[in-house]
Amino acid sequence: MSGLLAWSAVTAIASSHPIGQLTPQSWAVGAVLATGAALLPDLDHPGSTISRTFGALSSGLSAGINALSSFVYRTTRLKRDSKRDGGHRGLTHTLVFALFAAVFTTAVVQNSQKWALPVLMFVFAGLAVRGIMNDWCPKQDALLITVVSAGITWAMIAWTSQTNASAAACGIAVGVGCFAHYVGDAITEQGCPILWPIPIFGKTWYPVAPPKIMRMKTGGVVEMAIVGPIVTVLSIWLGLAALQGTGALPFLDGIDLLPV
């Protein structure tokens, strides 16, 4: 939901920028990409939702990413960095990775062959569906998730053109989703090394985070009972505001959802 919130906020607030002037279909594609991308950084954790979404394929990829992240952490850390393994909340939790994911997505949308775009869209659709259903439906039906993801993928492909503007919007959506994940991790106890490899206070893996009193425990009561519902409500509100700007909700004309 944090990825959806970030995408809704960016597109609703940036009404004078091209990213805030998308068609309803392009906005919807971006919403799915951002929602799925909000889970993408946790590919470095073997037990995460994303690592379990596509069975042995995602599990194997997760193991490889975890090993790579651990290697990069060990070889680039400074004396003041902690001596942890660095597999989780390492390489994929940096702006460098978000930029790579955004550029990669843009390139696939812009230059994809017949198989690359459907695979990319299915992955993000699957992540979005699995991520949102994770809290609402603990006993998930794998077949249902696959069918719903396939239907969303079909719509995404139909609504995505290979123009520069469309490709850029898709890339931005993925970058926004990753960044939303980083913000969420930054307000937890461990923080998030967003700014790697910039050395801060003698650390290349400096855990960006607010003061301790403003942090929360991952999966704790504050996150599940307070932050989660607030994020959901804001996602719906700003999403409606963004869609109103695209002209997709004529019945809301005359209602100022985003007063400035």
From TrEMBL:
Residue intervals passing through the bilayer: 50-69, 90-109, 115-133, 142-159, 165-184, 221-243
Keywords, sorted A to Z: Hydrolase, Membrane, Transmembrane, Transmembrane helix
InterPro entries recorded: YdjM-like
GO MF annotation: an example: hydrolase activity
Source organism: Lentzea albida
The protein's name in its UniProt record: LexA-binding, inner membrane-associated putative hydrolase
